[in-house]
Amino acid sequence: MRRVVFNQKGGVGKSSITVNLAAMAASQGKRTLVLDLDPQCNATQYLLSAKFPDGHERYDIRPNVGQFFAQTLSFKLKESSLADYVHASPFAHLSVIPANSELMEIEQMLESKHKIYKLAGALKQLARDYDEIFIDTPPAFNFFTLSALIAAESCLIPFDCDAFSRRALYTLLENIEETRQDHNEDLFVEGIVVNHYQPRASLPVKLVEELRAEGQPVLKTTLSSSVIMRESHEKSLPLVHLAPRHKLTEEFTSLYDELQALQHQRSTKR
Ligand SMILES: Nc1ncnc2c1ncn2[C@@H]1O[C@H](COP(=O)(O)OP(=O)(O)OP(=O)(O)O)[C@@H](O)[C@H]1O
Ligand SMILES: [Mg+2]
To answer: What does CATH list as the number for 2-269?
Structure first.
């Protein structure tokens, strides 16, 4: 399954959810890949921190996805396979294609040269080697997120339960539908995953109920807020390795199981 984790709103949990679901899949023996398309490089840093020198601000693990895109701009170069950009992570069955901070610098050039389908072609080939591919995206509807939505089969939407996020969610769902119609008829919204959920606070509960009543695909599993997430980032240890019995880890297990069950339902319906 090629899955993009996307919401153009910042800080909703895209990178945290991408990495922790991927680590969960890998811990169950699935051949798993994380593709980082965000120049902030958070997923890359989370999984490959050992490759960053201490205090190094510019993320430049080589080879990286920026180099993959850059080579598509030169018609003289033979097109390389995405497999050439894969790094092993410290965790069994889990590999990473790192981002780099130069992605931003080449974005306009890629756009003007219409390279929007390059990732899709390369990722479909690479997908034969993996059971699960998770794509982390930047907080913007830009060249890289559109490339990811064209390359993916499903889109998982993290949602952080406030009124601004709700407005952004409708725009996001429209953008995904437009992408499906114009570029990728296989794309579907796998679900909206509510992050930072507070089951005892009335506003978030009401908001989630309203979204469900509207027929939005809000997943059953919700993720609570916990400081363990920050610790997990700091130690570069996904929750399944840092705190396998923690409540938030158990919620990630339920989320992964729910996504697997939905996937199974879809494949049997076809
Ligand atoms: N369930 C959670 N509990 C506590 N902290 C969380 C949780 N989910 C995310 N965070 C924290 O919130 C911050 C933003 O999370 P994250 O970086 O995953 O969001 P993002 O959507 O990828 O952000 P960006 O849009 O900048 O890429 C991080 O500091 C992360 O540790
Ligand atoms: Mg992020």
So the answer is: 3.40.50.300
